[in-house]
Design brief:
Blueprint lengths: L14 E3 L5 E3 H5 L4 E3 L7 E3 H5 L2 H24 L1
Antiparallel strand pairs: 1-2, 3-4
Length: about 80
């Protein structure tokens, strides 16, 4: 599976599903405003938090959150 926006297929890719059905990297959504026009289909507005809370994306967001916390802890240990 790859990102419909950048076509990346990395091993640790966190793909989230947009309301229009396209899949995009979490990093593309993370940098968007809270409400933005879909940058894939340009046919609807996306509420970022609502998109993160959909059933399909919720578990992925939990995993992403845990991985980000791990990175922060490792960075603190390296200091």
């Amino acid at each position: 599976m790859s990102c419909d926006y950048c076509n990346l297929k990395p091993i640790d890719l966190h793909l989230l599903t947009l309301p229009c059905g396209y899949s995009v990297c979490y990093s593309h959504l993370k940098t968007q405003e809270e409400s933005f026009e879909c940058f894939i289909c340009n046919d609807h507005t996306i509420d970022k938090q609502s998109s993160f809370k959909t059933i399909k994306n919720r578990k992925k967001m939990e995993k992403i959150s845990i991985l980000e916390e791990q990175k922060q802890i490792l960075n603190l240990c390296d200091q």
